[in-house]
Amino acid sequence: MSETIIAKRYAQALFHIGQERSKLEEFESELRTLQEVLRNNQALYSFLQHPRITLDQKKQLVNESFQSFSKEVIHTLNLLLDRHREEILSAMVDQFLTLMNETKGIADAKVYSVRALSEGEKKRISKTFAPKVGKQTLNITNYVDRSLIGGLRVRIGNRIFDGSVSGKLDRIERELVSNK
User: How far, in Å, CA of 71 to CA of 179, rounded?
Assistant: First the structure.
């Protein structure tokens, strides 16, 4: 079975527990912290996946490192360790955060521009493009891409809105080539 499917199942189970116990916000905060720790500490990820380290040692590290986390999140982490699913830990967190974003009407967007965008510009982009994808707001990650020449390229999920100068030039070129 695909790792993404398995990660989604664990995320959905934790999400439903959070709904039942009204702890979704708490779980989200804890999982964002875990995601940041995993991104910034490759040694932890390597430790959890190392075959010579015993299950008890792995659980001890998780329990001590994340002792401030709720018992449900710790239990989920231990369950992943019990079932030797350490490799899907990051994917499970991503799936949970995706479920939270769907619940809140938020979508993640990648915005490519010639220069870094200000917070005001990000808010205007969110206000403009969120309704086009049926969301209330967008979490914008800005990438500087000087090859655009000017304008913006916005990617939300699998949809791309290309208003860049280079994109317009490419479209004009394709049109001229196809009309020969």
Answer: 64
CA–CA separation, 48 and 140 (whole Å): 31
| Beta carbons of 107 and 91 less than 8 angstroms apart | no
Q: Report pLDDT digits (tens) over 115-163.
A: 999 999 999 999 999 999 999 999 999 999 999 999 999 999 899 999 9
User: What is the number of alpha carbons within 13 Å of residue 118 lying toward its C-beta?
Assistant: 3
Q: Is the dihedral of CA 11, 16, 17, 19 positive or negative?
A: positive
Q: Is the pTM value of this prediction over 0.85?
A: no
Nearest Cα to Cα of residue 102 among 157, 32, 29: 157
> What span, in angstroms and rounded, lies between the C-alpha atoms of 138 and 113?
16
CA distances, 119 to each of 10, 122, 123, 134 (Å): 35, 5, 6, 22
Counting DSSP H helices and E strands in the chain, the numbers are 8, 4
Give me the residues paired with residue 6 across strands: none
Residues 81 and 55: beta-carbon distance below 8 Å? yes
Instruction: List domains and CATH numbers for the chain.
Output: 3-101 (1.10.520.20), 106-178 (no CATH)
Angle, helices 89-104/71-82, rounded to nearest 10 degrees:
140
List pLDDT tens digits, range 35-51: 999 889 888 888 988 88
